[in-house]
Amino acid sequence: MRVFARVVELGSFAAAARDMGLSPAVVTRLVADLEQHLGARLINRTTRRLALTEAGADYLQRVQDVLDRIEEAENVARDAGTELAGTIRLATGASFAAHALAPVLRGFLQRYPKVVVDLHAFGSLLTTPEDEFDLTILVGPLPPQADFVARRLASTEIVACASPQYLASHPAGPPRHPDDLQRHESVVPVLAGVPREWRFERRDGGGPPVMVTLTGRLRVHHADVVLASAVAGAGIANLPSYVAAPALASGQLQWVLSGWRQPSVGVWAGLPTRRYLPLRIRVLVDWLVQAYGGEEADPWLKASPARG
């Protein structure tokens, strides 16, 4: 089965023989024996090229699944007695790395001293895995037909918040309804995938959604600067919970309109392949699932402070 799959992948018996350290005659005989065993021709041979028959194409698809499972089982058995070591190349957005990932990685690295995490933080959120990385933390909706593996870590709710000083000094006072935001300054994020309209729904489920278009004289191109601007009193900001939670807990920010819900977005561990993963990557994914909960619930707002 391995020889057959390799012949198809490389496009010739000779190439498969060289790759597998076998003689061309042995490779030819093994494929012929397989066809005789199955009672079906798998490959049409010509002097110019090889072509799979219909039966061969169907068989190859199933054979590859079997071979992948065998390889995974063998690797799992080898890993059972192996100490966790090696490098994990990890990618995510800078804000998630700073506010949510760094504290979790500290514990992981203490637990596994021979593992190195090579963390790359991008200026924008990532919604698909980066091919050159072992693992990508994704924030946002997944593509309808994702060609990668995504394991849910958590969900993050979008939170409208402002500094207590801003709310106390503004003539309109704290907003009580989304429409009140029109009378306030907003810190407007200019970020890929972040809408300029805020959508609010009552948490008790009553009434239709309310859409509010952002108005503000400060337009910011980085999520951490949105946070700093809101803390400094520049206006009301919309922040993901993993960014806002520490400032809410410390009292630097106050959650406004908390009786209204804004859309939550998923947080995922994105893996570029469905094939076997080294033990260190699987253990890190499990660590992240345990740290964040692995559910649609928002772990950063579980113990939320008093809401505005």
Structural class label: alpha+beta
* Spatial shape: elongated
Order of SSEs, N→C? HHHEEHEHEEEHEEEEHEHEEEH
Helix content: 25-40%
What percentage of amino acids are in beta strands? 15-25%
- Overall mean pLDDT stands at 88
How many helix segments? 9
How many strands appear in the DSSP assignment?
A: 14
Q: Sheet with the most strands?
A: 7 strands, mixed
For the terminal residues, how far apart are their CA atoms?
A: 64 Å
| Radius of gyration, whole Å | 27 Å
| Spans of at least 5 consecutive residues with low confidence | none
Features:
308 residues, alpha+beta, 3-stranded antiparallel β-sheet, 14 strands, 24% strand
Layout of SSEs?
Elements (H helix, E strand, L loop, with lengths): L1 H9 L2 H8 L3 H15 L4 E3 L4 E3 L1 H26 L6 E8 H18 L3 E8 L12 E5 L9 E14 L1 H6 L17 E3 L7 E6 L7 E4 L4 E3 L2 H9 L5 E4 H10 L3 E2 L4 E2 L2 E8 L7 H14 L16
Parallel strand pairs: 3-4, 3-5, 7-10
Antiparallel strand pairs: 1-2, 5-14, 6-11, 6-12, 6-14, 8-9, 8-13
Helix pairs in contact: 1-2, 2-3
Please tell me about this protein's structure.
This protein has 308 residues and is an alpha+beta fold. The protein has helices spanning 2-10, 13-20, 24-38, 54-79, 94-111, 164-169, 223-231, 241-250, 279-292; strands spanning 43-45, 50-52, 86-93, 115-122, 135-139, 149-162, 187-189, 197-202, 210-213, 218-220, 237-240, 254-255, 260-261, 264-271. Strands 3, 4, 5, 6, 11, 12 and 14 form a seven-stranded mixed β-sheet that branches. Helix 1 crosses helix 2 and helix 2 crosses helix 3 (24-38).
